[in-house]
Amino acid sequence: MAKKIKLGILGGGGDSLIGVLHRVASAMHDQFEIVGGVFNPDIDKSIAFAEEIGLPTNRIYKDLDAFVAGEAKLSEDERIQVVSVLTPNFLHFPMAKKLVDNGFHVICEKPLTTSLEEAVILEEAVKKAQTVFAVTYTYTGYPIVRQMREMIQSGVIGEVHKVDIQYYQGWINPILHDKKVRETIWRLDPTKAGISSCIGDIGTHAFNMAEYLTGKEVKTILADLNTRYEDVQLDVDGTVLIRFSDYSKGVIRASQIATGEENGLTVKIYGSKGGFNWEQENPNFLYHLTDDKPVQILKPGHAYNGEVSLDGTKLPPGHPEGIFDSMGNIYYGVAKAIRGLDYDNGEFINVYDGVRGMKFIEKCVESHQSGNVWLDL
Ligand SMILES: NC(=O)c1ccc[n+]([C@@H]2O[C@H](COP(=O)([O-])OP(=O)(O)OC[C@H]3O[C@@H](n4cnc5c(N)ncnc54)[C@H](O)[C@@H]3O)[C@@H](O)[C@H]2O)c1
């Protein structure tokens, strides 16, 4: 049995949304062991959380500087190899950059940074360090999404001519209408979230999905964003027209004020020979549409799925897979890369696509502020 890869975590404490997803995902394929980190800017809270999850506290550090210095004192065999960055957006760049510069592999939450400029600097640093760098666009880890990607890219639905990806959430609605309450949300604070809330937080997932599935890059975009109130600085809703080429176009619709919606990411992709429909809240069913046959429903775990899809399914068909499996598969791909094993480039989103995500966010804001104009990506 290969030794487990030593994993550190920054952020993702008991008070966080995303921490548990990464902890469970890292354990799922028996590749990683969590050995330390900084779960919270308050060291006492960090230690208390480590105790709560049964982690020895000797490698819980007060901040990233102490983390890097402390790990440097350990033998290579003991040292943390890869670090998950699960903090609010504004900390992704300084943390990830320092980690990469010090030779750590990194698994970074999206959006990669808070500006394109930072993202490009980070990409250069990764190229120089030759380390593994993954950006957790979580929904690319679903086996049936990977199957859809393989089928689109092998031509099953013909030439793609329409992409419609919608990501609707409603969670900001009940807290948006009270000025005092909305001022407490970091996702609406430009110093913590960056230049966008809705497009930066979830529109970026939809954009990544569009490029991930089609294997094509979006060439131009036109965005119309909505902040809902004058004093709200960042968008909470947006519609973005996208063009891959003159004959391949689409729309990305994202909202945090789609009242009552939960985590409604839906994908509709149509080509000359067929189409696919998929919904994140019902992730084990992929609908394959054609002009002349009844709708076909594909499910994960069956022999008709390709290798990359099957590699991410751990139980026989009919045992529903969910978001934990999806993130677990991303971690599994990162483990293969760290171990120097073969892996498919669809197994995790790399720093290049993280930069594409930042370009998309910046251009959407610029398009909107310039009077809803078309801009090149
Ligand atoms: N991939 C996805 O689907 C997905 C879903 C949700 C969130 N996210 C991303 O994950 C990141 C975190 O989001 P969240 O909703 O979990 O945020 P959150 O506010 O719930 O949690 C942030 C965590 O970071 C910790 N933290 C803050 N400053 C820190 C510091 N200086 N050092 C160490 N820890 C620190 C906080 O204590 C907390 O534990 C964001 O970038 C967000 O975009 C991604």
From TrEMBL:
Residue intervals of the Gfo/Idh/MocA-like oxidoreductase N-terminal domain: 7-137
GFO/IDH/MocA-like oxidoreductase domain ranges (all copies): 145-276
InterPro entries reported in the protein's UniProt record: Gfo/Idh/MocA-like_OxRdtase_N, Gfo/Idh/MocA_oxidoreduct, GFO_IDH_MocA-like_dom, NAD(P)-bd_dom_sf
One Pfam family here: GFO_IDH_MocA_C3
Coiled coil (UniProt feature): none
Protein name: Gfo/Idh/MocA family protein
The species this protein was found in: Algibacter miyuki
